[in-house]
Design goal:
By secondary structure, this protein is an all-beta fold. Helix content is 0%, strand content 21%. The protein has a domain of 36 residues. The chain contains no helices and four strands. The strands form two sheets. It has a two-stranded antiparallel sheet with strand order 1-2. Strand 1 and strand 2 form a beta hairpin. The model has no long low-confidence stretch (mean pLDDT 79).
Length: 57
Amino acid sequence: MRIIKLNKGKLFLREDEVEGFLERVVTPVGTSAKADVPRKYLGKRVYVIITKKKIKM
């Protein structure tokens, strides 16, 4: 079993509690931004993991 621990907070994710991972590019919307996810995740708790690497758009 894999467990993900973050040093900066109190988030612990166990492998058997995670349905899957998605990779999306954040796109601009007005003065904000968004990352689209499939409709099947409506009403579920999701975590967005921010990486340091930027993608040229």
